[in-house]
Amino acid sequence: MPKFEYAPAPESRAIAHIKESYGLFIDGEFTPSTDGGAFKTISPATEEVLAEVAEAGPADVDRAVTAARTAYDRTWSALPAKERGKYLFRIARIIQERSRELAVLESLDNGKPIRESRDVDIPLVAAHFFYHAGWADKLDYAGYGPAPRPLGVAGQVIPWNFPLLMLAWKIAPALACGNTVVLKPAETTPLTALTFAEICQQADLPPGVVNILTGAGDTGQALVSHPGIDKVAFTGSTEVGKEIARTCATQPGKKLTLELGGKAANIVFEDAPVDQAVEGIVNGIFFNQGHVCCAGSRLLVQESVYEQVLAALQRRLTTLRLGDPLDKNTDVGAINSAAQLAKIRELSEAGEAEGAQRWSPPCELPVKGFWFPPTVFTGVSQAHRIAREEIFGPVLSVLTFRTPSEAVEKANNTPYGLSAGVWTDKGSRILWMASRLRAGVVWANTFNKFDPASPFGGYKESGYGREGGRHGLEAYLDV
Amino acid sequence: MSAPVDTPATAGSSLREFLHGLPGVDQVGAEARAAMLASRSIKTTAKRWALDTAISMIDLTTLEGQDTPGKVRAMCAKAKRPDPADPTAPRVAAVCIYPDLAHLAAAEVKGTGIHVASVATAFPSGRTSLEVKLADARYAVAAGADEVDMVIDRGAFLAGDYRLVYDEIAAVREACENQAHLKVILETGELVTLDNVRRASWLAMLAGADFIKTSTGKVTPAATLPVTLVMLEAVRDFRDARGRQVGVKPAGGIRTAKDAIRYLVLVNETAGEDWLDPRWFRFGASSLLNDLLMQRTKLATGRYSGPDYFTVD
Amino acid sequence: MSDTAAPARLAVRKTYKLYIGGAFPRSESGRSYLVTDHKGGFLANAALASRKDARDAVLAARKAFGGWWAATAYNRGQVLYRVAELLEGRRAQFTAEVRAAEGLGARQAEAVVDAAIDRWVWYAGWADKIAQVRGAANPVAGPFFNFSLPEPTGVVAVIAPQASSLLGFVSVVAPAVVTGNAVVALASERCPLPAVSLTEVLATSDVPGGVVNVLTGRTAEVAPWLASHMDVNAIDLTGAPGELAGELAIAAAENLKRVLRPADEDWTQPPGLNRMLACLETKTVWHPAGT
Fold it and tell me: Using a CB-CB distance cutoff of 8 angstroms, which residues of chain A are in contact with residue B44?
């Protein structure tokens, strides 16, 4: 019995008014799907059904794209840019006003700890809308020449790991640049997107500017291949990203940006500030249960400090709290779905089978729901599946290196190239490493930091295009 | 109470090399960690435990030029019976006063188990000769203090004369003659950087400190969560490396129960629960006690309380 | 101008004061001056600022500068957007004040107020973007990482336009403040009242005290004290009439203030970057890249 046992500290669910069922959001209104298709969304922590959600079929995709096109032609592209910006400011403000409700809803639907949705996800969502609101009437200064034009209608498909934040990353720049959108949230996490649709109504956003189609893979496929879409933006697995790239290859008028998987190296040198590096390692792979494309899933630790860092890491992991996502003290929440849990288990078993040593801190897993304990594999080599394949779960693979060049070589030895971490007290080394790491985002002495002003995106099979910052506007402009 | 003094090689330069070779502290990362731990939500049974524990860890303090025997008596009365309405409220750990009032304080708390901590070594500035500092320490011990809170020479530390700081601490330790345990005040507000806090913590522990303490309370900033985080990491690492446990005392600026509970969370998740005991963790505070008592009363009665129901000492 | 009979309800008239350090003091000189509408009718007695008020305002600005600059750009943008929210709420009040001050028709005055609010929103959105537009990573020849960043210059004195009492005022103050500077503004001598009402909005909108300070009074009396003040880093001479502007620029040279001396401006046109850039320094940093 620990001396200081934290009592349950549950955030109240009452604030998230979940409806029994939701329609599609097309042309400013909620409407059932044409063929009546629907599916259920559950809480991954308890497996309870949260709501029934409409499933968009090809006819609905058509309706939505038409609504977006009409809104673009008749309303949105004619609106003075500063008015467009003011809509986005309004949306940002309403998100701030409803932030607690959105955070609870996100934790219920996704399984992530309320502390994360409250302190990281939702504030960033508001920030993305604020930041991009200000660009709407300043595009002349964005470095793309005078008066850059939007592309038209954007079809956007987002994943389940940061549902509302991924929505913000897509919709805010698209609208700021003058496009209209049709967005499909992931099938396991539709609720905050549907609440966002309500927020658009509260902001009096002209109908058709934002359309939300709930559904699964088929809906997404229908959306991205629809001929009425001028721009496709996808965040998700590399496998699906390649399919979409193939589809768009046959429709050359469509611009495409992709933000896909990763297998980032988190590199710890002997002179790293150890305690902060350990926090960075933990944050890098256990934040959001490891469901992060840019997760630091490979720890590359300099051999001379391997024992020390590993011991500090294991000690730190014993204070991680796994459990009810709505408990304010929870650090590690539920795995998003049964399917994802199966995948994580499969790869972890492969890790053991291939000879790596597996360790987890003592951890009580709840009976219902989808759970996986924070796990560390040591004795991992580059050839192991757990060093090469994206696990997308709270599983860390530990490898060692001797010299900076070797660290770079090992870090780059992957088809992915989304992010990397560097921990050292030496400024020159940070800059030397950063210039050689083939990754779109390099975090030095920190990890998993995001900001609407900071461009994010990958090299190689982690995708192409950037989101955020001045660079992120390019994806939504005709330049 | 006595502990062997750890001695690295006698040359001053190897002490410097050792201290400068300790891993650095990234300020942004340390502050983020402290802030995350401060967001822990401690409720109901956990809160009750934390409030009682915090009360039992207080060094109830008065260190003013205008302290009189009357003031010290009143404070000692409060130390013995913090809540006039509830005799089950825990007692504080110690009273903390200037050495010329130690004799009086010792008489007031005799037989209660409450310790008498006296400041010494030309508190708070520490700016005088070693002889005077040692005489000050001996005087405190002779007057009945069983704990001595000394200050380090910050000027010497910032000038890089670690050897001098080390030797002074060792000398004061010796002057305590195994009769009093030694808290070493780093005055972290004057050391400023977290790297300095880490180095000063190690320096004090190597020289024989039983406790490392953040502040005199006379300089702003006094105790902060990031500073205490670094000190807790230091005592944890020191025990791992040298096998000896050293206590931590944040002092100054801790006014609310909420703050105190945050510090306990910090201890719990950094150094670990071995330190969750008045033997190894203290709060240097005065007004904190009433806020802890008020929160304790609210938990027991369900009503928000007010200052009229608690004593001003 | 007296009524032949007493009105049924007497209006409670406002006292117009200075805005220094987040507070509303009268002039330390105890003086005031007559402000009239465009027809010469009585509007108010506004505070007549002295050189000591100017001195106090610069002190307040200097004190507030460090904290304002240290806030994140995002935070500054949000604070300024909040100002716009409150301005919008007071649209009717400002429309009436601008009408009275400048003699505009109702619709014209409304358009001016709308433009002022929208201008404020435009500038609020620059807070977290100016560094991206003005900063750069510079490709120097050598194993060095080199970047240039804009930084606010510090305390900026602003002589606000004489004729455009709200839109012009907003157009000279907002660009200085959004990038992190602290401002001492001398309002239009003839039509100061909308600017004073704006300070009420600033005081209730999370703008830290001292970030914007507003003096009212005689341009020729107060401006020279700002122009010669050695702790002012930049001065915007927009509202200083021809000859005076020249004298002020000479005085400003004593500590090499950055001087903005624009030509006549149509406040309804999009502002461009130059007012923001005029109050920005550029800092370039080098660091080697090596193992």
Answer: 7-8
